[in-house]
Amino acid sequence: MEFTETNFPFLMIIMCISLFRIIQLRISTVKLLSKRITEVKSKYPELTKKHLKYRQNQIVKYQRVHFNSKLRNISQSILSFGTIIGIIGALFILIFTKTIALSCLLLALSGYFVSVLLLSRPSMNESYIFWNNYLERNPDNPLKIVLLPKEQAERLFKNERKIGWYLAIVATVFGIFSFFASNLNL
Questions:
Q1: Whole-angstrom distance, CA of residue 60 vs CA of residue 73
Q2: 64 CB contacts (<8 Å, ≥6 apart)?
Q3: What CA–CA distance (Å, rounded) separates 105 from 122?
């Protein structure tokens, strides 16, 4: 299969549709998360922005220690680091060498890394059970956890999974661009 003018629009359409769906799902996710923040603020009105940020950091730390396995923490760190390096590398290569093929390859790898991060998250049920157990063990609720209703939590989880799949599609398109661009010496 050769890269021709007829392949390019088809790949661009797939990528644009996927990017559009990612944006739609992300907007929906932000709305759900803002509902959670509103519930936290109404339940704990004494929390300032600084306290809310500190609370969120503590929740992430608690989850990292008590919920995630060491292997998951290590793989998340490696994938996050790889994503950052890939994006920075793609930008430097594109700016300084104008090599599209390698830039697309690095962007594809970065997209796959983020996709794997999103798709390898614990299931919604595992997370829900974990935080319900936390609330039972800690009735004083020092982290000030407010759980979304289960149906909203399911929507949030499904949105994140869909974003992961659409991102994998975009990464695949970048990979195809990289392959064809290297054949055309771009």
A1: 12
A2: 73
A3: 28
C-alpha–C-alpha distance, residues 51 and 48, integer Å: 5
User: pTM for the complete prediction?
Assistant: 0.78
Q: Which DSSP symbol is given to 31? A: H
Neighbour-count burial of 108, counting CB atoms closer than 10 A to its CB (0-12 exposed, 13-18 middle, 19+ buried): buried
Give the pLDDT band of residue 134 (cuts 50, 70, 90).
very high
Please tell me the chain's helix, strand, coil percentages from 3-state DSSP, rounded to the nearest 5: 80, 0, 20
Higher-pLDDT residue of 105, 183: 105
The one-letter amino acid code at 171 reads A
Give the pLDDT confidence score for residue 185 in this predicted structure. Answer: 65
Which pLDDT score is estimated for 1? 45
**66 is written with which tokens?**
């008590």
